[in-house]
Structures are given as structure tokens and as C-alpha cells.
Amino acid sequence: MDTGLIIGLVIIAVIVVIAVAAALVILPGRRSRHLKQKFGPEYDRELRRHPDRRSAERELARREKRHAKLHIRPLSAESRTQYAEGWARIQERFVDEPVEAVREADRLVTRLMADRGYPTDGYEQQVADLSVEHARTIGHYRDGREIGERGARGEATTEDLRNAMVHYRTLFAELLETDPRGADGQSEHGPAEHGAAHRPSTDSPRSDAAR
Rounded CA gap, 107 and 111, in Å? Predict the structure, then answer.
């Protein structure tokens, strides 16, 4: 075989090996950066829940792929108004029946999910589906749900239940595509991102009704 041809083949082989090695290093890094940016705090949560980074990222990638097949749709202006009015009624009910108000808030958020196109067959799958586009507020949904379950068992204080309403409202407003300060347009002190302090505002007579 011609020496020049051999050298050429060797060079090609080296280039291929380098390209493959680079792909093995660069592509996973790109995927990790994409998932971190996409899922934010949910990325860190999955890292804690899984034995290694690869399995955590595989779960997040699975969610993203499933979400891409969903038909998420916006609400009509009329539907948005009806949902906002429904939330206002739940807030008013909180004064006399806080446990039931939190339960109704959960049901209203679930209906809103369904109207937007999210499957609502099971809580865990709901959370997984929502986390793709609402990763920075999905923690509020988890917290609201957990407090609501404690409330149903008689293990939550009125202040706990008030916080549950704030948690639910954060996701509700985002799904409704309204100002995250509140589905009824009234202000709420503090940022909406999960983990920040949430205290009911006192700038309205309804502040004792799960602001």
C-alpha cells in the first residue's frame, strides 16, 4: 500500500477519534446546560432525588419530550375572566371555611390545567408535565398541596392554610397568564419565585381572606 495513502488513512482515523471524543465531552455538557436553564430549581431537585446526574437528566429530558407532544393552548379572554372571578369567590370563602377554600383552590387549579391542555389523571404526572414550562413555580404547587393535605387531617393552622392559598395563587396566576402579583390584580408583597417569603398584604379589606 502506498505510504502516502497509509499516512492519509491514519490522519483521517485520528480526526475521527478526536471528533468522537469531543462529541462525548461537548454534547453532554450542552445538554446539562440546557436542562439547567430550562428547569432551574427543578434540575437541582432531581439531582437530589436520583443516584447520579445522568439518571436525573434522563428524567428531565423525558419530561421535555412528553411535554412537546401536549397541545397546550391559551385561554380565551372570557375564560380568564371566569377563572379570576372563581378565585375571588374562593378567597372570600377562606374567612369562614379555610380548609374547604384550600380544597377548592386545588380543584380550580386542576380545572385550569385541563383547560390549558395539561393531562390531570394523576398528581405526580401533573407536576412532571407542569415543571417543563413552570419549573420556577411548581414548588408552590407542591407546597400548597402538602399543606392542603395536612389541613384535611386537621394538622394545619389558619396561617398555614393562608400560605397554601398564596402558593396555589402563584401557579394559578402563571397558568392564567396574569400578573404574578395576584389573579385578582391586587398586590402581594415579595417575589413570586418559590423559596421567597410570602406574607399576605394588608392593603385591602380582603387581606384576611387568604391574600
Answer: 6
Number of other residues whose CB lies within 10 A of the CB of residue 121: 7
**Residues 89-147: tens digit of each pLDDT:** 999 999 999 999 999 999 999 999 999 999 998 999 999 999 999 999 999 999 999 99
Residue with cell 423559596: 195
Q: How confident is the model at residue 184 (pLDDT cuts 50, 70, 90)?
A: very low
Nearest in space to 91 (alpha carbons), one of 26, 29, 183, 20 = 183
**What does the DSSP assignment read for 4-67?**
HHHHHHHHHHHHHHHHHHHHHHHHHHHHHHHHHHHHTHHHHHHHHHSSSHHHHHHHHHHHHHHH
Q: Which residues contact 26 (CB under 8 A, 6 or more apart)?
A: none
Residues 16-33 have pLDDT tens digits of 555 454 444 455 578 899
- How many CB atoms sit inside 10 A of residue 17's CB? 10
Residue 120 one-letter amino acid: T
Q: Which residues pair with 27 in a beta bridge?
A: none
The whole-angstrom separation of Cα 202 and Cα 156 is 22
- Amino acid in the structure at residue 106: D
Question: Is the separation of the CB atoms in 84 and 172 below 8 Å?
Answer: no
Q: Is 101 helix (H, G, I), strand (E, B) or coil?
A: helix
Model confidence at 15, pLDDT cuts 50, 70, 90, reads: low
Gyration radius of the chain's alpha carbons = 24
